[in-house]
Amino acid sequence: MQPVAKAVTTSFTVATAAARHMVERGTGVILVMAGGREAIPNLGGSHVAWAALAGLCRQLAAELGPQGVRVAWLLSPGSPKPDEPDPDATRLLLPRRPSYADVANAAVFAASDWATTMTATEINLTGSAVVD
Q: What b/e string do you get for 76-88 counting C-beta neighbours within 10 Å, with b at 16 or more?
């Protein structure tokens, strides 16, 4: 339970503190690294925590959206070390996991005015490790 309690408590505390300021301005974006719809062996409490964070994000989006605050979460299977082969790439439809820059670019997009209608949504950066 420790990973779940720690992740949810920390994310809830930070998100609600930031949301107070965003609500006053009538705009803002909360981004979280979360996910966890699929079952992955050997991840235990961490995977449950990610699923709980996705639920938290959905609830925050429902409560904050009418006040102008968007909420999204990034689903990423982790990034390979730069300039090293990705041993997990052969399992994916796209032959690579996201780089650090790929994740950062998706976060910048989600927080930008280009994504003004995106809320209560997961941004899937898994290279097909997770397919809807």
A: bbebbeeeeebee
Q: Is the pLDDT of residue 8 over 80?
A: yes
Q: Are 51 and 7 in contact (CB under 8 A)?
A: no
> Which band of pLDDT confidence, cut at 50, 70 and 90, is reported for residue 132?
low
- Average the pLDDT over 113-123 and give the result: 96
